[in-house]
Write a structure and sequence with these properties.
Strand order of the largest sheet: 1-2
Number of helices: 4
Strand content: 5-15%
Largest sheet: 2 strands, antiparallel
Number of strands: 2
Order of helices and strands: HHEEHH
Mean pLDDT: 89
Helix content: 40-55%
Low-confidence stretches: none
Distance between the termini: 15 Å
Length: 132
């Protein structure tokens, strides 16, 4: 019997990195969408100012009363942000205005979906990983 050694670790690692990255971006997109749904609406500026940014993509838009867009993170990080300067006051309230939380509840709502995304990575690896 003639057995040949094989090593597919580089290919498996590349698949794992790609699948994990895609899952992280999808979770960030989910948080962005959930926050836009939960954000209190007056003019719509707050909703429009919610975005995510990776090293390759940004969903940020420009508008009034907005902080500058955050710099691009490293390749393993995705940022979800609220660009409206008053977003923090709505989220946490002030001494004269009660809180209207929308961002943290969005993260907590999406947190439960992360397990499903991670299971998807495992299933994807099982189906796409090279064999023997």
């Amino acid at each position: 019997m003639n057995l040949k050694p094989f090593n597919h670790f580089d290919q498996i690692q590349a698949l794992l990195v790609k699948a994990t990255r895609e899952a992280i971006v999808q979770v960030a997109s989910d948080i962005e969408n959930e926050a836009k749904i939960r954000a209190p609406v007056d003019t719509g500026n707050l909703q429009e100012s919610i975005y995510y940014k990776s090293d390759r993509l940004s969903t940020a838009s420009t508008g009034p009363n907005r902080y500058p867009e955050l710099p691009a993170p490293d390749e393993n990080t995705v940022i979800v942000a609220v660009g409206a300067t008053y977003g923090v006051y709505l989220e946490y309230g002030t001494s004269r205005m009660p809180a209207q939380p929308f961002f943290l509840p969005s993260i907590l709502a999406v947190k439960d979906r992360m397990g499903t995304r991670l299971q998807g990575i495992t299933i994807r690896l099982e189906s796409e990983a090279p064999r023997g």
